[in-house]
Amino acid sequence: MTLTPAELTSAVSGGIGTSPQRPDGNLKVRGEFAYASDLWHEDMIWGATLRSPHPYARIVSIDLTEALKVPGVYAVLTHSDVPGRNLYGLEHKDQPVLAVDVVRYQGEPVALVGADHPETALRAMKKIAVVYDVLDPVVDMETAVDSVPLHPGGNLVRHVPIRRGSQDVQADVVVTGRYEVGMQDQAFLGPESGLAVPASDGSVDLYIATQWLHVDRTQVASALGLPEEKVRLTLSGVGGAFGGREDLSMQVHACLLALHTGKPVKMVYNREESFYGHVHRHPAVLYYEHGADHTGKLVYVRARIYLDGGAYASSTPAVVANAATLGVGPYEVDNVTVDCYGVYTNNPPCGAMRGFGAVQAGFAYESQMDKLAEALGMSPVDVRIRNAMTEGSVMPTGQVVDSAAPVAQLLKLVQDKPLPAGTSSDIRELPGGVSNTTHGEGVVRGVGYAVGIKNICFSEGYDDYSTARVRVSMVNGSLAAAVHTAACEVGQGLVTIMQQIVRTELGIERVTVLPMDTTIGNGGSTSASRQTYVTGGAVKAACAAVRARLNGRVDIGSEVIDETVEWRHRATEALDPVTGQGNAHVQYGFAAHRAVVDVDVELGLVRVVALDCAQDVGRALNPQAVVGQIQGGSAQGLGLAVMEEIQTSGGKVRNPSFTDYLIPTVLDMPPMSIDVLELADPHAPYGIRGVGEPPTISSTPAIVAAIRAATGLALTRVPVRPEHLTGT
């Protein structure tokens, strides 16, 4: 029996455009899903990491004698035990696996312990005697370039200039501002964890919660001095990521201990160690000047942006490029001067986090647009619409936006939404909530707007691709499919999307997602809002190859049809190093928010009453998941606006716990009215547009704009803290 292609692709439910149940959903809500911290192996031992207590110091000596005497200890390792290259990094190999002669941030790994019990490992770790010569840390991002060099090439990681149009044009109305963005943590709930299992041939298997299996493997193999085929990685259950798992944490450490002892080694960070063990969002200082004519039309934008990369480069070079190229926002401006600098300091390392450079710039340029509206006597929405990008607009890099850019439409959608009812008398709905701090006295309401732009997928000529294998066979008399990639599921729902694509393309309802590992080609990183676009594109292409071989058959007997495809999106190009011109990005995503807040101006407390959003997603392959991504991104933007910050003093972290690092809870997150536009991108599979990051960019400045509207205060720094509102 044969079916036509149309019959094949319409024969089953659960395809694209629907919201089928997640294959991991029931296990997760019942608490039965196996996360990386649940890994177990017979005869395994436990690993622990000794970390530097100092932001900057020379290592004078390390004495392991007493640690090795602790009963139950199998190994105590230092940099001299690293058999391969003792350096790793996403873009620059500048970070040691274990410190050699200097530590550059508080929490830098210095030594490892392997023991029969985690408490034994911790006791032995405390007996390692390290003598430090403490140095004065470099902590100011604005002066870091001229400070003591922390690395051989100096403290400038990257400078990206953008030059377009006239550099000395004048304007009728000019507004300036200096803005600051604090260091935000990804705050994923599942701490770093993994299990390394050695093999008799000197190879190793690593089960790890990560965002990029193949780049992890490359770095681990280099440090172990092994060929990549002798290092095998399998994704374990991931309890959130948001960029914080794109860099290595204990991957090499666990493998080192496993190969040294010949035993499986499990490592799990506690919450405090997690704060030290992964990168964070770059803090930023941003100087902006906007010039406009009397009608509100932008004449020029000039900006100078500093991003604190901390002790090691991580993904700072790419974050700098994003902040620079997206630094004007979703607005048409003929004359642009931007200089963005990423620098080394002795603060905690910073790298990828949702929004990736666009968040920092977005807070500044949206604050400027509000300031410009006030100077012109225009409404905040009108001044934005006056300058809004559309399809065909030209970016500051000279790149033409060649798909939908509905900036004005998004703003109008959130503006036209009904406003919530007036301030409540129920204390649960007032700033401070059930702490009973107020009964409505001193509470003022404000409304604020913001819109943002984010690039989708990797940029600047990077070879961005994904590999997918689709296999079809007969199971119990009907066709069944299996899909295999190395693209990491970190909670965003990629496992569901891959099933939906296979069902749609092949008309096969039974679709199994195989474990994600390095036995198949690279799936790229689960970041840059790219996986549905790129891995989805690979799965779609693999299905097309399988469909061609099926040729309409619904009974293939004992035959197994198996196709593997490596799929790439259209090419990008490097930025000109002098002018910053070039087609650097694949695609742009846009979102707008309207925030409504109540502020207790006497106590400095804020309650976000409503946080409404409109976003173009190209096509909603899974509508429920799309809404979930918009809600989640908005929640992280709310956190940055009013509570989330890793606070440092002299390079030392003051609040490495969820007691003192606050994140929004269900009581902090308001109801959201969300409009999802589906304006297809003709260059993308199914017309899709990455969803996860844009709402994080516009939610923060919208909330701060609403607080400004309520209080009349300038509020040039996030997060906004009570003392900023009360002056105490």
Automatic annotation (TrEMBL):
Residues 1-24 are annotated as: Disordered. SUPFAM superfamilies: CO dehydrogenase molybdoprotein N-domain-like (SSF54665), Molybdenum cofactor-binding domain (SSF56003). Coiled coil: none annotated. Pfam families: Ald_Xan_dh_C, MoCoBD_1, MoCoBD_2. Residues 30-136 form the Aldehyde oxidase/xanthine dehydrogenase a/b hammerhead domain. InterPro entries: Ald_Oxase/Xan_DH_a/b, Ald_Oxase/Xan_DH_a/b_sf, Ald_Oxase/xanthine_DH-like, AldOxase/xan_DH_MoCoBD1, AldOxase/xan_DH_MoCoBD2, AldOxase/xan_DH_Mopterin-bd_sf. This is Carbon-monoxide dehydrogenase large subunit.
